[in-house]
Amino acid sequence: MPFIDGYIQLNYESDVNEYMATIFLARQPIYNRKLSVFAYELLYRDKVSDQADVIDGNRATSDVIISALMDIGLENIVGEKLAFINMTRSFLVGELPLPLMKEQIVLEVLENEVPDEQLTSGLESLVEAGYPVALNDFIYTPKFDRLLEIAKFVKLDVSVLSDQDLETHVELLSKHNVKLLAERVESQEKFEHCKNLGFDYFQGFFFCRPQVVIGKRVEGNRMIVLKLIAELQNPSVTMDDLEDLIGRDATLAYHLLRYMNSAFYALRIKIESIQHALTLLGTEEVRKWASLMLMLRLSDDKPKELMLTGMMRAKMAELLVASDQDAKAEQYFAVGLFSVLDALLDMSLQEVLDTLPLTEEMSSALSTHSGKMGQILQNIKLYEQGNWDELMNLIDHSAYQKAYLQSIKWASEMGSNI
After folding, report:
1. What is residue 207's predicted lDDT score, i.e. its pLDDT?
2. Which runs of E-coded beta strand occur in 145-283?
């Protein structure tokens, strides 16, 4: 699930034939005005070149549908959210069949489609059958008036429209019963502008970019949380220290017991005390669990996807060094988790690092991607983006694919249990 600096790359590996069964599918979240995930757009990635170069549009759309619905499973990619999928004319006019999951699939009409009678009639039939329609990269001209009566969503590329053009489009579209979706929103300022104009949904990278505020300080309660996180990183911390740390916070103690009672452990014994729970978990597991809990507290006003990204990176980093006896897996885990702290706190990364007494290796890994720890973090980020050109000779693709899938599953399960 992951996420942040670009598209998510979902890879599925079959035991039958590793090369032929490898599926590449990009996913990008779509947010509502409260920055909760409303839907995901699923995008084609070529199996051979690992790129989005589309030569045959019908095949690309077919690959996305088959990969999402049959190979991976829509429930594993979007859960109960909507899935926006680009559709070619052949699908929209009935020449090629569409899947029956009309409750979850939004049909995106590409910007280069000619709104002639055949397309309009096909879309009307699809809407009548229950499929919602979105107009992609929309630029208004009167010839689209009939499509605006059919569509449920209109997507505007806010990176290419001037502020004046954007306002004009919003005014024109307000006369139609459509929901406005701003795509390619790449800054907090652009997000706020679109929100003020009345857009309903947002797609882009704005949620992972920290807002630059000169002289901004961390709020009091967040500073306490950061101090607790810092204490957890002390390599000499003892079980007694951890008990004292968690015992200061009734909410932490409560969630510890709930966590121990979750499907992750399904214990058949009664937990007698915080110390008992900590002993059963072990020092390193407690560090991980408490760090996750505290990070979640920092993310109260942020998209859940951001926190899940940190969790995914943490687990993936840990898995990638699991067989290296010289690596301290818990530090790799922490670096992956902390890689989203700047976005969670709307602070520069250096400001965040100044508050945490991390080792020099961990700090450098986060700030400059230096050292083995930093290289792995950078590789994980590139893998999220599907940036295969840079990764070509740097990684064992099979190992990264396996770790990535495991980390997605772990982050999703952990997210539902803490």
Report:
1. 54
2. 153-157, 179-185, 201-204
Mean of per-residue pLDDT scores for the chain: 76
Lowest mean pLDDT segment, chosen from 42-46, 127-131, 194-198: 42-46
Query: Which three-class secondary structure string do you get for 220-236?
Result: HHHHHHHHHHHHHCCCC
Q: Tell me the domains of the chain and their CATH numbers.
A: 8-208 (3.20.20.450), 220-417 (1.10.3210.10)
Question: Could you tell me which residues come within 8 angstroms of residue 355 by beta carbon, excluding any fewer than 6 positions away?
Answer: 218, 223, 226, 227, 230
Whole-number Å distance between alpha carbons of 407 and 418:
16
Structure tokens at 318: 């840990």
* Tokens at 68, concatenated: 């999402």
Residues in the chain: 418
Sign of CA dihedral 47, 50, 52, 54: negative
Name residue 179's beta-bridge partners. 153
Rounded to two decimals, the pTM is 0.53
Cα dihedral value 298, 304, 307, 313, nearest 10: 180
Please answer whether residues 182 and 203 qualify as being in contact, where contact means their C-beta atoms are separated by less than 8 angstroms: yes
- Mean pLDDT confidence for 259-284: 65
Q: Which residues contact 50 (CB under 8 A, 6 or more apart)?
A: 24, 386, 388
User: What is the Cα–Cα distance from 197 to 52, expressed in whole angstroms?
Assistant: 32
Helical residues (DSSP H) of 174-248, grouped into ranges: 188-197, 220-232, 239-247
Cβ neighbours of residue 15 under 8 Å, at least 6 residues apart?
none
How far apart, in Å, do the first and last CA atoms of the chain sit? 17
- pLDDT for position 47: 46
Q: Which residue has the higher pLDDT, 301 or 236?
A: 236
**Which contiguous run of DSSP H or E holds residue 13?**
none
Name which of 100-104, 305-309, 364-368 the model is least confident about. 100-104
Burial of 151 (0-12, 13-18, 19+ CB in 10 A): buried
Nearest to 123 by CA among 106, 104, 142: 106
Q: 220, 296 in Cβ contact below 8 A?
A: no
Nearest one of 161, 155, 158 to 201, comparing CA atoms: 155
Nearest CA among 306, 358, 364, 350 for reference residue 330: 358
Least confident stretch, 10-14, 36-40, 191-195: 10-14
Residue type, 393: N
